[in-house]
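Problem: given the chain below (158 residues), write out its structure.
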Amino acid sequence: MTVAETENAIKHTDGVIESYGAKRCDLIHILQDVQEEYDYLPRPALERVSEKLNVSLPEVLRVATFYAAFSLEPRGEHLITVCTGTACHVKGAPRLIDALQRDLGLEEGQETTDDMKFTLREVRCVGCCSLAPVLTVDGRIHGNLAPEDISDILEDCF
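Solution.
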């Protein structure tokens, strides 16, 4: 982040914290509101939350990394999540992930495309076991998928 972006992140985070009254019990809500603004949790914002709520930075980071909804890295324009829960795993989620990585040009361990168009994440369950295997694109559920379906789903994003 640039100096100006850092200052803006701190200013925005201060406003969010003040709206909750700077209470430790609102940590998750504060992080959600900060992420809503940036689509991820910038480091300066996390440090400010730690300082203002009097919560150690490692504790803030534990919360931010525990919940799959939070991201510590900038995400792509489109968020794709693949369910890897038991039903989806058994019915082919790993093959969907392989197809997505191939079609998006993602290397092993890379979540976001170089052009920041897509971020691919694995999640434990989206609650649609009867539609397994399932993935979501920007919250829209796609079920009963095969690797051959991936290209059509990605085309809808362009």
